[in-house]
Amino acid sequence: MSIVVQNKRPRKTNATGSRSIRTRFTASVPTRLTSVMMHFNEAPTTSENLVVTLAPIAGAAYNTVLYSVDPSEENLTDICWRVDGDMWLEEGDRVNVTYANTDRKTYGLQITAEEYV
Fold it and tell me: Which end of the chain has fewer CB atoms at under 10 Å, N or C?
């Protein structure tokens, strides 16, 4: 993908709650994914993975797990996954964050990116 940078602007998708997490970020212009951050009010005790997945507009054959962590293994209340290098999204690509949250911990989730317009 060839990108001509004219202007870039930050874009954040936020989610909060205490039930299962199914948050989607969809690129509407060429976008560089920068991070996914999450805070739990208490560390979960049930073993289950927080999963960040790329679902490209090209189709399901290209779906890729970008990051996965079980917060109960290390008693985590804060998770910060920063993209190593450049991860470009084209219009229509999605980043999905999922977590069962069986323990119903209160969470705050933020997906951060830069849009290039």
Answer: N
Residue with tokens 């909060």: 16
**Category of 17 on φ-ψ map: left (φ > 0), alpha (ψ -120 to 50) or beta:** left
For 62, list phi and psi in degrees, rounded to 5: -105, 0
Can you give the pLDDT at residue 47?
A: 98
How far is the CA of 73 from the CAs of 46, 62, 85, 88, 102, in angstroms? 9, 29, 27, 31, 15
- Return d(Cα 76, Cα 28) in angstroms, integer: 32
Q: Strand 50-55 to strand 64-69: parallel, antiparallel, or no bridges (unpaired)?
A: antiparallel
Tokens of 47: 């073993």
Return the DSSP state at 28.
S
